[in-house]
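This part of the workshop introduces the protein records we will be handling. To make this concrete, we reproduce a full record directly below:
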Amino acid sequence: MRHKFFFSVFVYFFILVFISLGSWQLVRLNWKLELISEIENSINSEPVNFSGENPKNFKKVNFRVSLNNSRLIYLYSLNENGKPGFDIINTIVIGNKNFLLNRGWIPKNFKNKNFNISNPNLTGILRKKSNKNYFKPENDISKNYWFTLKDEDLLKFTGKKFSNYIIYETHDRSSFPKAKKIGANISNNHLKYSLTWFSLAISIFLIYLYFRKKNY
């Protein structure tokens, strides 16, 4: 009887562990849904005037700049249909801070064309620069062919240090560059994980009941 008692304790322990893990995933699910909702509300809200101070991820801003197109950065990128091309990046100054402005995507054969705009009043969305540069080739600064926006390469190319936030220009122009679509692209698999843990707990409990009926 003693070994049956310890076996029951062992089974109930793992059932409780799996239930706890499933419950934790539900907590994470609610947090993630609130985060996604907050991001979407920020993106869809009216832009606020931006002086360069207190940048915030996904904040929609208005700003006024003088674009210098003599030193564009061409960042290799795919468009929504998977076609290779470049994001064109301007270096800009807002207040007394240096920022990178992502103007949007262009096809490869548009490289080195002129993309001047007459209106210096722009709208964009702030995004914190990602540090995930795994498995990407090294930048070819001499040919202005970029795969990542590494701080050390930016310093070599421009002689400047930049904010950790990139501004993605938003506009409705039909011509190139095509503005990047910014959204809350955050993976949210917590419900699936939660159901997995709960299913394991239920399965183990049912197997235990069957075993107990046959052997007790």
About this structure: The chain has two domains: 2-39+189-215, 59-169.
